[in-house]
Fold this protein.
Amino acid sequence: MGIKSLYKYMPLYDGKFFDHFLLRATERVDLNDPFEFLPPKDLFDEVIEFHKNWSESEWAKNSTYEDFCKSFFMLEGVISFTETRSNLLMWSHYAQKHSGLVIEFDVENDFFETIKRVRYDNIKPNHIHIKDLEDLFFIKSDDWIYEKEYRIVNKLSKHNSYITKSDMKINPAKNSAILLGDYTEEMYMFRVPKNSIKSVTFGCNIEPSWKEKITNKIRADKELQNVILWQAKLSKDYYYLIFEEIKNI
């Protein structure tokens, strides 16, 4: 991979990322694109035809393509990154309207070993071989091209911690299997190594008190001493952001 850094837009969440260093692998049902991971219709037809010839012919007779889609890739999650920290839309959508932050990661760290770039197209794949099903994780509509997205796709069962949505409590990894439906109540988290963090950029609308709190957490952690801090600001002449390094803190 030619790129050495990728970025993650994040809301503040009270600065808790810098306590636990956890990133969420988002399940399909919580992604913001309804086309995510949808299998081609011909794949469904092949599955039905296969089961008709075996003992599950009644299942094949009563199944619909819609039901098939709902159960497809439900136990995998996506951790998303991007090539740029300067996209105004992504600051608005994913970083609390420019009041959050962007973290730069070193993609040469082993954590990013399986990362792949998303391919954008305006035509859905109409045929895909069963051995290439994972390609569906990395195909999106042209409408999303501005995100310049890269993805890590993980089995949710390999999570390091999970958060219960009702109280946002962080829990140790589950010993039991994750069942379909668990994801409606839980979020599955993966720990990113501290030494993969290269920089943190604060949004142009961040509250000074939160900026100070997060800065203090970073500076107090011996493993983050090489992390560079940046402040996003509005250009006076153009519709883009400029970034100033924060020094002497």
Summary: Residues 5-37+73-245 form one domain. The helical segments are 17-20, 41-52, 57-62, 65-70, 88-94, 208-220. The first strand starts at residue 5 and ends at 10.
